Amino acid sequence: MKRFFGTLLCAVACLSAWAWSQGAGADEAKEQDKTPAKVYFIKEINAQNLLKVYDALGRQATGKVAVKLSTGEPGNNNYLNPQLIKDLVQKVDGTIVECNTAYGGGRSNTESHLKAAKDHGFTDIAPVVIMDADGETALPVKNGKHLKSDYVGKDYLNYDFTLVLSHFKGHPMAGFGGAIKNISIGIASSAGKAYIHSAGKTKDTGKVWGQLPQQDDFLEAMAEAAKAVADHCGNNILYISVANNLSVDCDCVATPEDPQMGDIGILASLDPVALDKACIDLVRASEDHGKVHLIERIDSRHGMHVLDYAEQIGLGCLQYELVELK
Fold first, then answer.
1. CA 277, CA 10: separation in Å to the nearest integer?
2. Could you tell me the residue ranges of all domains in the chain?
3. Among 52, 71, 191, 245, who pairs with 78 as Cys (CB 3.0-4.6 Å)?
4. What whole-number distance in Å separates Cα of residue 31 and Cα of residue 34?
5. Are 189 and 100 in contact (CB under 8 A)?
6. Interior CA angle at 257 toward 252 and 261, to 5°?
7. For 39-63, how does the pLDDT look when each residue is reduced to its tens digit (9 = 90+)?
8. 257 burial class (0-12, 13-18, 19+ CB within 10 angstroms)?
9. How far apart are CA 11 and CA 269, in angstroms?
10. DSSP label at residue 170
C-alpha cells in the first residue's frame, strides 16, 4: 500500500478556520480538526474496487441507507453506470435517492424523474425514491452567511445513513461536481435548489435564474447547505467518488460536451472537502493533455472557492493523505 501526502500542510487555512470558529456566534461551531483526512484511491474502475474502497473507510452503512447519486438528465450518458455500482448499493441494502430539479427538463417533476431513473437502469438494481415528491423539510444552517436553512426532500429524514456516491466531473455553474455538490444541491428539494443557487434570496424556481448572485456567494451557499447535511448525519455518512467520463459538463446537462481526458479512478473518504480536493489534484497532476479543458472549467468558475469556504466553516479540511489501494 503506497501512501503519500496529497497536499502540503495548509497552516494559513487552518488558522483561518480557527479564527472563524472563535468569531461572533461561533459557540456552536466545532474547532477545525487539523489532522489530514485519509482519502483512499484505486485506479481501476470496476464493481469490485468500489467495494474495496468502501471497506477501506472502516465505516459501515447501517440501518435504512440512502444512496445519493445523480440519475442523469435524459440525453446524458455520463452518469454512473448502474451495473458498476450495483454490488455496492445492494451490499448496503440501499435506496437510491434524488430530488427534483429546479429547471425545465426531464427530471423537474417526480413522474418524469422516476421515468429517467428507470430508463437509465437504476430501478433495475435498487428502489428509487424522489425525496421531495411529498414536500420538503428544513435543516438548520449554523452561522450561515447566506442561508438560514437548507431545504431538503421531506423523505430524507426517513434514512439512518447516507452513502454519497458521486460522479466527479465538471459543472457549467459550479466548475466541478463532486461530494459537496451532491449533498448540497443534490439533496435539496426543487425549491431548496433555487434557494442555494440564489444564495438565500428566493425559493421560486421560476425567478431564481433571473436573479443569480455573485459567483462566490453561490459557491458559499452550496458549502453551507452541504454543512447542514453533514451536521444532520454526524458520523452516519461516507463519501465515494468515481472520476470517469470527465466531461466539463454535469450529468444534469442533457447534451454534455464529450470527455476530453481519460478516467482517473475511484476515491473515497469520510471528509467531503478532502475528497473533492483530491479529485481535483489528480486531474491537475494527470499527464493527459485533455485535462486542460476540465481545469479551465473549474478555474473559470472559481470552483476552488467552495473548498476554501467549506474548510473555513468546518465541513472538512483541505489537508489529506492519499492512500493508494492495489
1. 13
2. 41-316
3. 245
4. 9
5. yes
6. 110
7. 999 999 999 999 999 999 999 999 9
8. middle
9. 21
10. E
Counting every residue, how long is the chain?
326
Q: What is the DSSP letter of 116?
A: H
Distance, in Å, from the CA atom of 320 to the CA atom of 298, rounded to the nearest integer, reads 20
Distance from C-alpha of 83 to C-alpha of 6, rounded to nearest angstrom: 30
Check residue 34 and give its pLDDT: 66
Closest CA to 156 of 225, 58, 233, 71: 233
pTM: 0.90
| Architecture of the structural domain at 41-316 | 3-Layer(aba) Sandwich (3.40)
Q: What is the DSSP letter of 61?
A: -
Amino acid, single-letter form, for residue 226: A
Integer Rg of the chain from CA: 18
How many Cβ atoms from other residues are within 10 Å of residue 139's Cβ? 22
Using alpha carbons only, what angle is made at residue 114 by residues 109 and 115, rounded to the nearest 5 degrees? Answer: 100
